[in-house]
Amino acid sequence: MRNVALLQLKNNPNYQKNLDKILEYLSSLEENTIVVAPEVCLTDYDYENLQEACEFSEYALEQLLKCVNNQVLVLTLLRKVDNSYINQAVVIHKNKIIHKQAKHKLFKLGDEHKYLKAGVDSEIVKFKIDNLQYGLLICFELRYKELWKKLEGADVIFVPSQWGEPRKRHLEILGNALAVMNQCYVLIANSSKDTMASSSAIYAPMGGKVIDDASECIKGYIDTKQIKLMRNYLKLY
Fold first, then answer.
1. Fewest CB within 10 angstroms: 44, 95, 123, 209, which?
2. Residue 120 DSSP SS3
């Protein structure tokens, strides 16, 4: 059993205030908690100030690495790599980055492709923390069935997102379907900005969910017995 906290946050134009909010939650949550934050929660998609946003991301990452020990923190950051800007997910545990991947499927309706370089799909792989297998998809990537296949067998899939309100129902359907199809937990942390869907949720292998659009921090847990139960019951893999 492991605790989960999904941070359903609004971005503040002040980068430091966004970081302070995450640090505040990290200090208040239990040591064994998995904390998932929305996509680019520290800087938002601040295309007019990309260089500044990337510089802050590096500073924030240093601070987060210092304080995340037994917890697991999942978030995405705007970063500059080889003279290109990317939206990179990082998973922090034991004061280290244990997994990172750049967003592979950019959202063209939001002009992401005009400012950011797409990541390679070879980075979308399963990784281990303790005795569980994890995977990660970033927002729009949740729509691609070939990416679901790459994470087949993962016990938990993280989905940090900025998913728009007009497609709110899609986010809920896809998140639940992925949990049932892959017989795993799916943890979606979505932005609660006025234009976003909220709908952050913990989806279980049996299709149950914990969801609360009114909350800034949605708490629940991962029960490994549920994963084993479904996989022994249906034996899909």
1. 95
2. coil
pLDDT for residue 237 is more than 80: no
CA angle in degrees (0–180, nearest 5) for 90-190-53: 50
| Host domain of residue 94 | 2-234
Residue with tokens 């370089």: 117
Tokens of 125: 């792989």
Name the amino acid, one letter, at 213: D
Give residue 3's identity as a one-letter amino acid code. N
Tokens of 143: 């729509």
CB 50 within 8 A of CB 85: yes
Q: Which residues contact 18 (CB under 8 A, 6 or more apart)?
A: 9, 11, 12, 41, 42, 43
Structure tokens at 21: 């909010």
- CA of 114: how far to CAs of 84, 209, 219, in Å? 11, 36, 36
The span from the CA of 47 to the CA of 111, in Å, is 10
The predicted model gives 47-62 an average pLDDT of 98
pTM over 0.85: yes
How many structural domains does the chain have? 1
3-state secondary structure of 216: coil
CATH number at residue 139: 3.60.110.10
pLDDT digits (tens, 9 = 90+) for 121-144: 999 999 999 999 999 999 999 999
Q: Which two tokens stand for residue 209?
A: 């969910």
